[in-house]
Amino acid sequence: MSDDPRITGHTRSVVVTTICCLAGIAAGVVSALYVGTDPADAGSTIAVLIMGVFVIVQYPLYTVIGVGDFGIKDNLYVTFMTFTLWFISYTILLTSAVTI
């Protein structure tokens, strides 16, 4: 084992993917709470801004955990995964007539 405290390899991938997915789901729930789940609320740009905030908030967390060296590919992956999970969770909440 090396003395480097940074997370590398497969563990790094699992940590980044898990945080992205959880952040996307949390962004979907927060969007539903803040914007609403009525059909008219689906066109709100505030929900997209909430998702963007959840993308940005992840980066200091990655630095604290020790996986902060990101290239363009990693940044695109974090954004895409967060957006995808946000889109899925918020769409489910919008179409299932949930009141939060």
From TrEMBL:
Membrane-traversing stretches: 12-34, 46-65, 77-98
Source taxon at top rank: Archaea
Keywords associated with the record: Membrane, Transmembrane, Transmembrane helix
Entries under InterPro entries matching the protein: EMC6-arch
Protein name: Uncharacterized protein
